[in-house]
């Protein structure tokens, strides 16, 4: 290369180019989602319900006295969650909401950082802005900020748990789960993972923190008994609005009960096989892949099987999506990413020209995305199991059989 070419065509490596492209775009996307869309708000307002409950708590007024027959967002947090949310009401409503949005953005950035480090990448690599860009591109993160709810903190609890449990810091890992359980029990199924490893210290803080906080909060809430009498029974009911679970979707579209039950059973059976295979073949040889994929299977199945599954819960599948960087990932195929588009896309499919079709797509993109993702995981692992069985039957004459089985469906 001549001296002139050296100055006219300076050499820049690809990772640096990616970082230069991604950082400004990502920063502006974060600004747009948080300062513009989130502050603007939406018809759906999760924050006001929580703020009013916190205000009632501080002023010794009933907290669990809502009318659950309406379709407005309801306050469903346990007494321990009320205790943790209480300090918000010290500020006026607008300042409290803006503060909560700002904290949620910080928490989301921290979650992305921990996820990048969990998978072995440096913060100054192109992967960090790429993960942040993906986060804020999704409907889950955007609507978590716009509706202003607690889900960003649940994501941090999940990623913190995965990071700490890999670092053998069990009490702190349990604390990450325990603090989220004190507000909402979404991450409870993830406790199956330390249970399978017989890591009992995790449960000391995971269960101890919400129990202690509930004991403290109970005498401070004037109608704490109403949480058990009114709120808990309501939580077990299936509502037919803003509900992407199998039962919620079936109720909305009038699907026969037997078909709803059959689908729920089918997804549970697929999850059982997937979890068994992941534990048997990856738990001891590739703990990161086992933890992140198994947590995705547990949570994705919960979203489908439970009484309430909301689209923005999909952000808890980020660790599963991130496994695409790992050799044995179940995400290295196009159907998996079609599923990711379905449950994480911010696209709206409402159509004026084809109204029924557009409404069907809009109401079903999340449950179809969750369903396809769980089916993909099951099928990839099933094919690997079948390959392993075939290799075992062929005997030692096929040295490459096991390697083929380990990568089947990954590419």
From TrEMBL:
<protein>
    <submittedName>
        <fullName>Glycosyltransferase family 87 protein</fullName>
        <ecNumber>2.4.-.-</ecNumber>
    </submittedName>
</protein>
<keyword id="KW-0328">Glycosyltransferase</keyword>
<keyword id="KW-1003">Cell membrane</keyword>
<dbReference type="InterPro" id="IPR018584">
    <property type="entry name" value="GT87"/>
</dbReference>
<keyword id="KW-0812">Transmembrane</keyword>
<feature type="transmembrane region" description="Helical">
    <location>
        <begin position="202"/>
        <end position="221"/>
    </location>
</feature>
<dbReference type="GO" id="GO:0016757">
    <property type="term" value="F:glycosyltransferase activity"/>
</dbReference>
<feature type="transmembrane region" description="Helical">
    <location>
        <begin position="288"/>
        <end position="306"/>
    </location>
</feature>
<feature type="transmembrane region" description="Helical">
    <location>
        <begin position="132"/>
        <end position="165"/>
    </location>
</feature>
<feature type="transmembrane region" description="Helical">
    <location>
        <begin position="171"/>
        <end position="195"/>
    </location>
</feature>
<feature type="transmembrane region" description="Helical">
    <location>
        <begin position="21"/>
        <end position="39"/>
    </location>
</feature>
<comment type="similarity">
    <text>Belongs to the glycosyltransferase 87 family.</text>
</comment>
<dbReference type="Pfam" id="PF09594">
    <property type="entry name" value="GT87"/>
</dbReference>
<keyword id="KW-1133">Transmembrane helix</keyword>
<feature type="transmembrane region" description="Helical">
    <location>
        <begin position="258"/>
        <end position="279"/>
    </location>
</feature>
<keyword id="KW-0808">Transferase</keyword>
<feature type="transmembrane region" description="Helical">
    <location>
        <begin position="98"/>
        <end position="120"/>
    </location>
</feature>
<feature type="transmembrane region" description="Helical">
    <location>
        <begin position="366"/>
        <end position="386"/>
    </location>
</feature>
<keyword id="KW-0472">Membrane</keyword>
